[in-house]
Design brief:
mainly alpha, Endonuclease Iii, domain 2, Endonuclease III, domain 1, 2 domains
Length: about 220
């Protein structure tokens, strides 16, 4: 993607969805952290189904601890890797209670020190809960960034750093969600919907498709 195409690319996404939101359901910052922790290798839909009852019973770290490992494991058993995730969630809750007064820390270092919380999860929490211009590179963002040429890279960190360098500051807070939603519903893994893509004129793949159609 050419530098001059980046602004109209995001301006187009912004017009279509001025205030993009995560599709994970939560009512407080702890629930957001827990939902993102549980979402690794799982869909938002499956996480939302599992957390509906879980969060009703345990909307705080202490109440999650009070449920105990067996109950938490049972409540999230429909999610992939549920045993490991349940254990990490409770270990995280113990640290939150003992070291942070039950509050969610606002630094990347403190977040990544929590069991089951990697760079991507920390970036989501910093962006969604605290409004920081971070870039949480999941499979959708990795794919869209490489296909479009917006932020090519061989691994998530390379893509993250490329995106932070290239995306104009005024778009950074929402860019994470625009790219995820675009990858989830338009620039899909197996069958990208280039024909109806609003940002096709600015995309490397879109240009290749147009050239092939014209040949």
């Amino acid at each position: 993607m050419k530098h001059e195409d980046i602004d109209p690319f995001f301006a187009t996404l912004a017009r279509a969805n001025p205030s993009p939101q995560t599709e994970l359901r939560y009512t407080n910052t702890f629930e957001l952290l827990a939902a993102v922790l549980l979402s690794a290798q799982a869909t938002d839909v499956s996480v939302n189904k599992a957390t509906r009852e879980l969060f009703a019973l345990a909307p705080t770290p202490q109440r999650m601890l009070d449920l105990g490992l067996e109950r938490v494991t049972g409540l999230i058993r429909t999610i992939g890797l549920y045993r490991t995730k349940a254990n990490n969630l409770l270990l995280t809750c113990r640290i939150l209670v003992d070291q942070h007064g039950g509050e969610i820390p606002r630094s990347r270092e403190a977040l990544q020190a929590l069991p089951g919380v990697g760079r991507k999860t920390a970036n989501v929490v910093l962006n969604v809960a605290f409004g920081e211009p971070t870039m949480a590179v999941d499979t959708h963002i990795f794919r869209v960034s490489n296909r479009t040429g917006l932020g090519p890279g061989r691994n998530p960190l390379e893509v993250e750093l490329a995106l932070l360098k290239r995306i104009p500051e005024r778009y950074l807070v929402h860019a994470h969600h625009w790219l995820i939603l675009h990858g989830r519903y338009v620039c899909k893994a197996r069958s990208p919907d280039c024909a109806s893509c609003a940002v096709r004129p600015f995309c490397d793949l879109g240009r290749r498709v147009e050239r092939q159609a014209a040949a």
